[in-house]
Amino acid sequence: MIPISPDEMRAVDANCTYFGLLPIQLMENAGSALASEARRRARGKKIAVVAGRGNNGGDALVAARHLADLEVTVFLLGRSREIATQEARQNWEILEHLNFDLREVRCSEELEPLSRYDLILDAIFGTGVRGPVRGLEAEAIDAINSSGRPVLSVDVPSGLGTEKAVEPDATVTFHRPKVAIPGEVVVAGIGIPPAAEFYVGPGDLGLVARRASESHKGENGRVLVIGGGPYSGAPALAAMAALRAGADLATVAAPRNVAGIIAGLSPNLIVRPLSDDHLSPGDLDLIRELLPRHDVVVVGMGLGRHPETREALAELIPECGKAVIDADALLPGIPLQGIITPHESEFRRVSTIRVPPGRVEKETLMSFARDMTLTVLLKGKVDLITDGSVVRGNATGNAGMTVGGTGDVLAGIAGAFYSKAPPLRAAVAAAFVNGTAGDLAFVEKGYSLLATDVIEKIPAAMRL
Ligand SMILES: NC(=O)C1=CN([C@@H]2O[C@H](COP(=O)(O)OP(=O)(O)OC[C@H]3O[C@@H](n4cnc5c(N)ncnc54)[C@H](O)[C@@H]3O)[C@@H](O)[C@H]2O)[C@@H](O)CC1
Ligand SMILES: [K+]
């Protein structure tokens, strides 16, 4: 089984909630699995639960209820009114109502009896531990380690990754192995089906959209859009979407015939006119000047098919660093890198793989991405996103989004996220935000929906 980091696990949990699989259900499953393992290991009836005030403690409170036929004592570190989550509090209150042996611990002396138990469940901290462990929690870790009794850690040994951690006999970890747990590890399923890790949700957004409150202008992404020619709206949509998705700066490099129109569309955009009515090799010096001042290049929308444009792209794209490649830049023979955002016929064109309509299989997409060292976001009813090793699906979006321009919006959002996150995470979150913004716009506009309506809903989609 592939290990999972705390951040990724938090994203899975958040997505489960979005799909209606609630934390209280997962906690019940976790506590039940934990109780089975504890029962298997306990050499006697006396079980001590040492619980912190987060959900890790909550898991162990559930286990205490499942072990009610044994002699269970719960040591809660701190006061019950300080329990941090609704789910853990609810489980504490059940035990209180049912008169379980509950002790609110305020100093480490109250943990001395630990050496008299047959098994200790360590549930002080799980994946939510932050910074150094001090005070009562540190003393409780010492008390567990010096108890001389068998210890079963819940999810991860408490304090793992900090200077002070429990050294258990074994750990029951939930769903998937967590990174870097030493010693014996038992992985317990908690009812999260593979589909809950395949489909994209707001947890994926959490993995890219965090912004440090003290960040400066430019630190949240500078996106250069290269597009336009036959079309003027496409690059403007991509650039506006990048700004709404959190980029600090969006520059559009566009052919001179449309540069003025684009600049007139929004005062938020910086527009650099190219030398001709299409992108040509003569523009490369200007673009090379712009590249170091941007983090990501979003290229292709509305460029048209002039042979000189093709020549310019072939030379330019390998110099772009992080690139989101879309539409008219998706041609065979033009080098690809970073993220590509084809719909199905563009995918056929660029990959030269013969697939019947509606039949791009996950495996085909993955092996193409792997061979080309690319992240592919294949737009469809369910978008498929892969970097060749992981494949994800995005089911947000609606039939109203077949209107022109929504693909440009998606590429712009992907550009904004790619400035801050690795390509797979950026593409996954962009697909979710674009589709969700489209769904919010559809509620108001129905089939009259326009790409600009989708852009206006990006902020609401990002608040999910
Ligand atoms: N969220 C979910 O859907 C699920 C979570 N689960 C459990 O929840 C755990 C994560 O729960 P939480 O996110 O509540 O976090 P934890 O229970 O790991 O710990 C967080 C608590 O400890 C406090 N804390 C953190 N660092 C501290 C430090 N250095 N010193 C003192 N106090 C500190 C926090 O203020 C918070 O109250 C997982 O490990 C797993 O056991 C499971 O119930 C399964 C489902
Ligand atoms: K723990």
From TrEMBL:
Protein residues bound to AMP: 407
Catalytic activity: (6S)-NADPHX + ADP = AMP + phosphate + NADPH + H(+); (6R)-NADPHX = (6S)-NADPHX; (6S)-NADHX + ADP = AMP + phosphate + NADH + H(+); (6R)-NADHX = (6S)-NADHX
Cofactors: K(+); Mg(2+)
Residue stretches making up the YjeF N-terminal domain: 9-198
Domain YjeF C-terminal: 200-464
Origin: domain of life: Archaea
Residues where K(+) binds: 56, 122, 158
Protein family membership: Belongs to the NnrD/CARKD family.
PANTHER family xref list: ATP-DEPENDENT (S)-NAD(P)H-HYDRATE DEHYDRATASE (PTHR12592:SF0), ATP-DEPENDENT (S)-NAD(P)H-HYDRATE DEHYDRATASE FAMILY MEMBER (PTHR12592)
Function: Catalyzes the dehydration of the S-form of NAD(P)HX at the expense of ADP, which is converted to AMP. Together with NAD(P)HX epimerase, which catalyzes the epimerization of the S- and R-forms, the enzyme allows the repair of both epimers of NAD(P)HX, a damaged form of NAD(P)H that is a result of enzymatic or heat-dependent hydration.
Name by which UniProt lists this protein: Bifunctional NAD(P)H-hydrate repair enzyme
